[in-house]
Here is the input.
Amino acid sequence: MKRVNILKIGGVREFLLDFIGEEGVGIIELLAEKGVVDEFQIADLLDKEVNSVRSLLYKLYSKKIVSYTKERDDEKGWWIYSWQLHLQKILSLFEKRKKKTLKYVEDKLKKKKDAHMYDCHVCLIVFPFSEAMENMFQCPSCGGRLTHKSDKEEIKRLEEQRRELKGKIKELEGIRAG
Ligand SMILES: [Zn+2]
Here is the structure.
């Protein structure tokens, strides 16, 4: 995978904000820009205490977004942890999220479409699609025309959302393959 500025991919930033919060995104931005950085430098660059940076990093680590290597500082006698981003993991989490949303949108769309109802404006009776079809879309009481009653705006909106999600997933697959 080519090194991409992951936060420039439309929607990734918002996803990460939801997923790990503003401070976590701050660290990701820094690692995306600098590559491998030790936690003292991170604290320095973000103007934070090293302990609070560490706890954020562990949070990211638990989500497998970052990993570390440690090296012993012989002079000071302590371990220094250097951190780096897992772009691939972030992309795949984002993609998974998009696919989940797509499934949700498709289910909703299907239900909306299945729920197509027809009604007679004269008798004020509503018929499900199957019944309306049996009656050749004529009201059994007055013989008037049964008209479609589905939520056209909602369906249009869902179809638009589905189109966008499919496009985004395709884009992500392209980036991962690239
Ligand atoms: Zn009628």
Summary: The domain at 6-85 is CATH 1.10.10.10 (Arc Repressor Mutant, subunit A). Residues 120, 122-123, 139, 141-142, 144 surround zinc ion (CB under 6 Å).
